[in-house]
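In this section we turn from sequence analysis to structure. A common task in structural bioinformatics is to predict how a protein folds when a small molecule is present, because the ligand can shape the pocket around it. The inputs are simple: the amino acid sequence and a SMILES string for the ligand, here zinc ion. Study the lines below before reading on.
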Amino acid sequence: MRNVWDPMTITAPRPRRHKLRESIPAQPPAQPRCSACGTDAYLEFTDYVPASYAPDRESLRLPLVSYSCKHCGRHYSHKVPEDWVPPGWQWYA
Ligand SMILES: [Zn+2]
């Protein structure tokens, strides 16, 4: 009687790749808005990073926007919904 180890059983990778926790946004994307003033009327957008795909093509990186509120001076930076762009944003070639 032989004791046979199946090498496939030992070396086969786990069927599920565990995802990086980083790929799961801590907070759901939100429309830019000053939570202190309760409005988006005074926002001044300073930076916008359009959505892009991660190198593994599995996860979409949501757009990232930075803005400040001209009314109270607070500054925000967070992810926004995939199809959101700053008002008046134009794509220059
Ligand atoms: Zn404000």
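The two ends are 72 Å apart (CA to CA). As an exercise, try to locate the residues that line the zinc ion site and compare them with your own expectations.
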